[in-house]
TrEMBL record:
Belongs to the Bfd family. Keywords: 2Fe-2S, Electron transport, Iron, Iron-sulfur, Metal-binding, Transport. Residues 2-49 form the BFD-like [2Fe-2S]-binding domain. This is Bacterioferritin-associated ferredoxin.
Amino acid sequence: MYVCICNAVSESDVHSCVAAGACSTKQVKNACGWKPGCGSCTRRLAEVFGQAMTATSVASAQAPAA
């Protein structure tokens, strides 16, 4: 599903950015080449970013220790 239609950024794109190390919505926007548009996606981006951060934290905690 798209998070931002104006910039064609999907939920998968946000999750990929977080997995690659993005630690803020600003970093996600920069990584995706996000340009200012209508602004209706701001809340959705924050929600998906939070989900991605949680998923990444859970995956890290479940990874076997090296």
